[in-house]
Amino acid sequence: MGMMDFIKDAGEKLTEMGREAELADRIEKRISGLGVKVKSLEVAVDGEKVVLKGFPASEEDHEKALLIAGNVRGIAKVSDQMSLKMEHGKPGKAGISKTRFHTVQSGDTLSGISKKLYGDANKYMRIFEANKPMLADPDKIYPGQVLRIPE
């Protein structure tokens, strides 16, 4: 995927700005703590940018790791240096997905996003399920949050 942009002032505050090593550690623990599988995960923070390296178990794990790292207050960019394992054990670049991403705007709801993107407000659970475990409740989204939107 390369570089993914996020809203710097949105997201959960994990630590004070300027404490990059601590923030990298907390992001890494959050990724693994939410059950997202990335083998040999490395997280580095450089100012407003997070660099992710490792081997996600699936494209879904890859996308969720990016979102977990980027939906943190103070982070504006995530540099994706992860690779998926391809057939015969050969590494391949991650990012060949049909998943879209959507940045939540003020006033958005999952049903409203679903209506806009799928033409059916009742498909909001597809978005909710695609963003589990980062979302625990379909009514708890916030402006600036980036969500996975499955095809």
End-to-end Cα distance: 17 Å
Please state the CA-atom Rg, rounded to the nearest Å. Answer: 15 Å
Care to count the β-strands?
7
How many helix segments?
4
If you average the pLDDT, what whole number results? 91
Order of helices and strands: EHEEHEEEHHE
How would a textbook summarize the main sheet?
Answer: 5 strands, mixed
CATH class of the largest domain: Alpha Beta
Beta-strand content = 25-35%
The CATH architecture designation of the largest domain is 2-Layer Sandwich
Q: Specify the structural class.
A: alpha+beta
- Low-pLDDT regions: none
Q: Give the helix proportion (percent range).
A: 25-40%
Q: Which overall shape is indicated by the principal axes computed on the Cα atoms? A: globular
Q: What labels describe this entry?
A:
single chain; 151 residues; alpha+beta; Histidine-containing Protein, Chain: A; Membrane-bound Lytic Murein Transglycosylase D, Chain A; 2 domains; 5-stranded mixed β-sheet; two-stranded antiparallel sheet; 4 helices; 7 strands
Structural summary, described in words:
The structure is a single chain. The protein is an alpha+beta fold and 151 residues long. It has 2 domains: 2-93, Histidine-containing Protein, Chain: A (2-Layer Sandwich); 100-149, Membrane-bound Lytic Murein Transglycosylase D, Chain A. Helix content is 28%, strand content 27%. It has 4 helices and 7 strands. The strands form 2 sheets. Strands 1, 2, 3, 4 and 5 form a 5-stranded mixed sheet that branches. It has a two-stranded antiparallel sheet with strand order 6-7. Strand 4 (77-85) and strand 5 (91-93) form a beta hairpin. Helix 1 runs antiparallel to helix 2 (59-70) and helix 3 packs across helix 4.
